[in-house]
Design a protein that fits this description.
- The longest helix has 17 residues, at 29-45.
- The chain is 32% helix and 27% strand.
- The strands form six sheets. A nine-stranded mixed beta sheet has the order 2-1-11-10-12-13-14-15-16, with helices on both faces.
- It has a domain at 406-507: 2-Layer Sandwich (GMP Synthetase, Chain A, domain 3), CATH 3.30.300.
- The chain is globular.
- It is an alpha/beta fold.
Length: 513
C-alpha cells in the first residue's frame, strides 16, 4: 500500500480526463502521473526515501498535489505545512518533523533562507516560480527527472504524514497518520457522499488542511472527478469559477460562505446552477448562514472532522438534514459520548458529554509527544476529541463547544456556541464570537465580540437586552465589543486566542475608554 497511488483507477479508466485545473493549467490524469513520477524519481536521486521526511509549504497550486504524492511514492513521510503561520511556527513545524527537503511556493521565497538557517537538517530547498539564493528552481528541476513509475511499497501502518494541528494552545502538534488512515479516509468520504467521475470540486480552502485534502482533493482523485483549484479564498473568484467550470460542489468554512453571500450583485449576474451542494465544517455553522446559503445558492451540508480522525459526521447529501447538527456518523466511524471526568461512563441521548471517535482513519499518535498521545488516544483505540456534543434519538450530532472553551460561571457550565446561537439571531449582527472573562464573584463570565451589518447600528446595552429576551439570563454576555472583522486562524476558524488577547487589552487600565 502506498497512498501516493490514490488516482490509479481514473488513470487507467480516463487518462485524458482533467484531474486538476489551476489558472491556465489543465492537468490530465496522465500528466499528473508523469509529474508525480518525476518528483518521486527526483527525490530518489537525492537519496530521499523511507525514513526521510519532506515538507510541502505550498499555497493552493497543482504542484502541491504532485510534490505530496511524489514524496509518498518515493517512500518518504510528508508534512503539509500550514501556509498562514508566523515564521517561528513554520520553523517549529519543519524542525519538529525533521524535514530534509522543503518544497515551497513563491509566496514563501523570503522565508526559505531563514527556515534553512533555523533547521540545520534541511538539505534541499525547491522554490516554485523562481528560487532565491541557496535554493533550486522547482519547475526546472522537475523537467530533468524521469517519468518512469517509481512507487516504494509501504505497509498499511507506515506513517504517510505528520499533519500539524492549528496550535490554538501552544505550538502545533504533529499528528501521525498512516497510509491506511489516509486511504480509508479518502475512500470512505467518497463512498458516503456518492462522488462519481462527473463531479467537479471547487477548492479554495487551504489544501494543507484536512478539509481541503479529504473533502476536496483526495476524494476527487480517487473517483476520477476534477478539482478546480483557486490560490486562495476569494469570494468573487469562487463565484466566477463555479459558473466558468460548472463546479458541482465545494467544501469550506462558515467565514468563506459568508463572504460569498456578500457578493450579491455578482451572484445575480452569474449562473451558479451547476452547484449541487456545499460542505461546511471546521467551525460552528450559524443556522442563519446555513438557511440563507441553502436558499440563495445550494444546500449546505454541515460536517465535522478533525486532523486526528478525518471526517467524522456529515449531514447526508440525500436524506434528512437537521439544522444545527453535523449530521450522522460516516459508515465505519464509531462514536461515544462520555462524561469528560470519567470516559468509562456513557452519557444518555440528549445530554452533553465529550465525543470519542474510533475508526480506521484515526491517528497513530502525536509526533514526539507520548504523554499527549496517552492522554488523548485511549488503549482501546478511542480518541478523545475534547469536543462537547449531544446526540438525538436518530444519532444526529450537535456540537455544543470545546471542553477547553467551557465557561464556568458560578458553578454553571456555559459553552460559547450556546450564547452565539442566540446573538446570531440579531438582525444587525453578521458575526459573533464569545469567550470567557475572569470575574471576582462568578469565576468566569461570557463576553461577546460582534461584527455589525452596518457600522454604528448596535449598542452594547441593546445587545445584552436582546439576549436576555431570547436566552437564559445566566448566559448573557456581560460585555459586548464591536469589531470591524472577526480574527481567523489559518484554518479559517474564529481565532479565540486572538480574541482573549484583545479582551486583556480592553480590560487593561491603560486601554482607551
Amino acid at each position: 500500500m502506498n497512498f501516493g497511488t490514490i488516482f490509479d483507477l481514473p488513470l487507467t479508466m480516463w487518462p485524458d480526463k482533467e484531474a486538476l485545473i489551476y489558472g491556465p493549467h489543465r492537468i490530465t490524469y496522465a500528466e499528473l502521473e508523469r509529474r508525480t513520477n518525476r518528483v518521486a524519481n527526483g527525490l530518489h536521486a537525492l537519496g530521499i526515501g523511507p525514513g526521510d521526511h519532506v515538507a510541502v509549504l505550498v499555497k493552493n497550486d497543482h504542484r502541491f498535489v504532485e510534490t505530496l504524492l511524489g514524496a509518498l511514492r518515493a517512500g518518504a513521510t510528508v508534512t503539509p505545512v500550514t501556509t498562514r503561520a508566523h515564521q517561528s511556527t513554520l520553523a517549529h513545524i519543519v524542525a519538529d518533523s525533521a524535514a530534509k527537503v522543503l518544497f515551497a511556493s513563491s509566496d514563501f521565497a523570503a522565508e526559505v533562507g531563514p527556515l534553512a538557517a533555523a533547521v540545520p537538517g534541511l538539505r534541499h530547498r525547491f522554490v516554485m516560480d523562481g528560487a532565491p539564493s541557496g535554493s533550486v528552481e522547482y519547475d526546472g528541476w522537475l523537467a530533468g527527472q524521469s517519468t518512469a513509475r517509481r512507487v516504494v511499497d509501504k505497509a498499511p501502518g507506515d506513517i504517510a504524514s505528520i499533519s500539524y494541528t492549528s496550535g490554538s494552545t501552544g505550538q502545533p502538534k504533529g499528528v501521525l497518520l498512516s497510509h491506511a488512515a489516509f486511504d480509508w479516509a479518502a475512500r470512505n468520504l467518497r463512498r458516503a457522499l456518492l462522488y462519481g467521475p462527473e463531479e467537479r470540486c471547487l477548492l479554495a480552502v487551504p489544501m494543507f488542511h484536512a478539509n481541503g485534502m479529504f473533502a476536496g482533493l483526495f476524494s476527487m482523485l480517487e473517483c476520477g472527478g476534477s478539482v478546480v483549484i483557486l490560490h486562495d479564498v476569494d469570494p468573487a473568484a469562487m463565484i466566477r469559477a463555479i459558473e466558468r467550470e460548472r463546479c458541482t460542489y465545494t467544501t469550506g468554512v462558515p467565514a468563506m460562505y459568508k463572504m460569498m453571500l456578500r457578493e450579491q450583485e455578482l451572484l445575480d449576474r452569474c449562473d451558479c446552477s451547476s452547484l449541487g451542494f456545499v460542505i461546511c465544517g471546521s467551525s460552528e455553522v450559524p443556522e442563519e448562514l446555513l438557511t440563507e446559503f441553502t436558499h440563495r445558492l445550494a444546500p449546505m451540508l454541515e460536517a465535522y472532522g478533525l486532523t486526528e480522525c478525518g471526517f467524522v459526521c456529515n449531514n447526508p447529501r440525500w436524506g434528512v438534514r437537521k439544522l444545527g447538527t453535523t449530521g450522522l456518523a460516516y459508515p465505519g466511524v464509531a462514536l461515544r459520548i462520555v462524561d469528560p471526568a470519567s470516559v468509562s461512563r456513557d452519557i444518555p441521548v440528549g445530554q452533553t458529554g465529550e465525543l470519542l471517535v474510533r475508526s480506521p482513519a484515526n491517528l497513530t499518535g502525536y509526533h514526539n509527544l507520548p504523554e499527549v498521545t496517552a492522554e488523548r488516544l485511549l488503549p482501546d483505540g478511542w480518541f478523545r476529541t475534547r469536543d462537547i456534543v449531544r446526540s438525538d434519538e436518530q444519532g444526529y450530532i450537535e456540537i455544543v463547544g470545546r471542553l477547553d472553551d467551557r465557561i464556568s460561571c458560578a458553578g454553571e457550565s456555559i459553552f460559547p456556541k450556546e450564547v452565539e446561537n442566540v446573538l446570531t439571531q440579531h438582525p444587525d449582527l453578521v458575526d459573533v464570537a464569545v469567550v470567557a472573562m475572569p470575574d471576582e464573584i462568578k469565576g468566569e463570565v461570557p463576553v461577546a465580540f460582534v461584527v455589525e451589518r452596518s457600522p454604528g447600528t448596535v449598542r452594547e446595552a441593546e445587545i445584552r437586552e436582546f439576549f436576555l429576551t431570547h436566552g437564559a439570563a445566566y448566559m448573557h454576555p456581560r460585555r459586548v465589543f464591536v469589531l470591524l472583522e472577526m480574527p481567523l486562524t489559518p484554518a479559517k476558524k474564529v481565532d479565540r486566542t486572538a480574541l482573549k488577547r484583545r479582551l486583556e487589552e480592553l480590560r487593561s487600565p491603560s486601554a482607551p475608554q
